[in-house]
């Protein structure tokens, strides 16, 4: 061999020998394996560089590879991969089309020779097996049983932790749920380590694997005669099978113990790693389908994760049915929006001192073809979660502006209030969309009021601030909705370009007055509190509207506190636009007859 190729070829030989060692066990020493591979590599190099090419070299090399004991498909795959990747570089022929073609031909010959020799060897081995079976059937059958047992364990146990896997867990659950086993009820506890991905990301997968082994050890050490099986289902998800339960509480107690044992800190490589886990529990009669119990426990685990983690939840059929119904609604929403099933109902907003209609709030409604008219509480959260709230909000905003434009002909100055979601505010271009809608509908900007939640103004950054400023620059009113129940930053409240506040309905209801201790300062009354809140709004130059006014007494109270506007069932429930039109006309006729009303309500108290 030319000395200039020797360093590269030696590296190639080492890589080839390593690949064969990993792919196929042969009872020889590393030195023997290296000598075999060196001889084959020398022949291969000669065949690649020879002029002219000698047919059959590759077939003989492939056959000799099998003869050396490396006759598995993995050995062939590793050989072809190493030769194709390393030999062209070692010989410096990567850019030589002729040599590269010859190498490809040699690889094809090698594979053909390997396959032929492996086939012949397989036939010989089969004959040997048949002869051995005739001579020592008992020994052969025992070997087969051992092999099957190993395969069975491989198929039914997790290789990292040694625990039973999902296959084994499902089989045992099915066995307990069969009529042949004298067990009445069983429970399934499904556990998942909280935020385990962060452990792998920060500490590395090696530490993660050590933790999983320790988690498996702790769970397997749970001592209770009813714990039939502890399994690792996948990744950081485990399951406990509990037999002979009398009620769900039996399985819950075991799940509680499992969570407690996992809550104790772990120590890996001199590092303390605190972990928590969540669990879902399902329990039922053995007459139930085992797969259903496992599925139900996983659903309950999902609830535990959604409810804050580090806790457990028991499967509840009603909650599951509600989740399924919500999913069906969520899936149906895009098509419903396309079909125009979403519309708006309008609730009056009255000026408290005069009782006149000042504006209306547009509230989303869904005319569902099967469920009837659905209020926003049934679907707005779903729309927010899926992102459809952006398109839905744009649709309702245009509908409300168009309707408000029509009302200007019979009551000029009537404004319409529309809710804007956090997703909408966090999108670039909201103000531009609003400007286009106002332009298309002809509604003056000051007659559009957009309601944002307190949550929106907790942390004003970037797009939200820009959107609010751009909306106010258009002349659109912006108010904070449900004020008093969130966490509005008062500094933000002072600096924001707002038009008003809408007090949450909880502020208008009487509260339990604190007991006055002897010598203590007189506690403030509900009216005192409302006056302070209203005064704060007025000091900031804001119009204050009270929601949830249901009685004339509440309306009088809010008027006395100085509140500007009121909204609630006392003034009218959300109704279709034509009913608002009828009420406007009725109010106009009433004012024509008599203008002397102590505290008129629009259009009249609703009972």
UniProtKB/TrEMBL annotation:
Residues 184-317 form the GGDEF domain. Residues 326-588 form the EAL domain. InterPro entries: Biofilm_reg_signaling (IPR052155), EAL_dom (IPR001633), EAL_sf (IPR035919), GGDEF_dom (IPR000160), Nucleotide_cyclase (IPR029787), Rev_trsase/Diguanyl_cyclase (IPR043128). It holds the Pfam family EAL. SUPFAM superfamilies: EAL domain-like, Nucleotide cyclase. NCBIfam families: GGDEF. This is Bifunctional diguanylate cyclase/phosphodiesterase. It comes from Micromonospora humida.
